Amino acid sequence: MIRLYNPQWQYLPFHQNPWFQAAVACALAVAMGIAALLVDPLAGFGIVFGAAGAIILLKRPELAVIFAFIASSTLFNAATHTSIARLADGMLLLALGMIVVRWMLEQHFTFVPTPINFALIGFLGMAGISGLLNYLGSVLNLAAFVPEFRNWCYYAIFFIMVNLVRQKHQLMLILKLLLVITLICAGLMIAQYALGSSVNLLMTGRVEALITQDTKYDTVTRILPPAQSSVFMGFLILMVILIVRPFTRWSLVLLVFWFMCAGAVIVTFNRNFWVSAMLIMAMTGVLCFWYNRPAFGRVLLICGIGISVLTAIPLLMPGSAAAGLIQASAERIGSIASSEQVENDESLRWRDTEYEYAVPALLANPIIGVGPGNAYRPFDSRLDTVGHFSGMRYMHNGHLWLMVKGGIISYIFFAIAIVLTIYRGVRFWRFVPDLTLRSVALANALTLLVLPIQAIVAPIYMQVFWIPILGIMMGTNEVIYRLSGLTR
Fold it and tell me: Which end of the chain is more exposed for a tag (fewer CB within 10 A), N or C?
């Protein structure tokens, strides 16, 4: 006899409920039938493939986070690789929908409360209200609003991490896959540097001869793919793991991985990356000096290894490509300390011109802003080039971008979320029993502590290759605290 209902089904996970499985099978059958009638075979295959991906996602929702990372923070560009970006959007929407569906169908599934929930909801909510009010006032460009607000919504990865990553093996899978993907990107960036700017190995991003002030280095290549954010985070997390965990034979493997990420970070020639890395190293050293003296000794050892390598290469291999890279890096980092060079730096003067427009735009719309995607200034020949670059919706200061586009209230909510994440990281990291997760929690907290400095000169908080990483960092820390029993 076929039973149409069993009281025990209510205790099963929703994806194991026979009624749910039957509904999914019927939906797939209908979708395949419609696809066969209305679309070409390739599109039909895409629909079936997407449906299969959705079923896999029901079993492993953490894969949505991985795919969003791949689509945004590796070697793909959301503006040009639109099919990949849309697939990532669909997976994230499905994962967010799963949270609601599981809450409705599973008796023991509840939303995970964290102190950051309200702040992030307020941040995204106020940005949406800003767009709605500006649209009703006929001052919002809807075609420009959608792609920029999409970037804002990627902060919702935090809620996917917190509510769907419930077990340690899920979190470890995410961290391991992120590390593998990051190392692949780092290797490709190093290979691109070896090939030079004449051959483009990467699918997207800038590959160009380095220019520092008025000096052009023809033999030194600057590489800035979307993966710049992931290799920077990989470098920082591996550094903190090497410091916090006692040395074992696996530490040598991690040290090789760290050098790979370090090489990729160097060839970006992002001075804010380098300064931030030094600040995080110093702060890690201070915390270890207070709470873990053996780890402080490892801080000194890693610093010594890094300095020795950077000093030995120019001495042992003068005239080599590696020596030229280190010399160009030293000259570029040294330009920060030169007041004359800072005063004449063209990129900094560019930002001054942006402030001439951004500050009045903020004062004119302090509460709701001009709306995500809206232009905050007119065309200016000092900054814009017809047919090449139009920065009327872009600015380098990430803080000001959030305030001008979403309003001061939205920015305050965002700042609260960041401050709470930093506070909880500094407070809880040393109580996490797993040393690897302890290192990740500390690295995330310290990175979020220095990013506001970077965001003054780079729009990190609104760059599509940074936003998923920020959501993953914030969510990862909350998952670590919950798994460690540190939820208060």
Answer: N
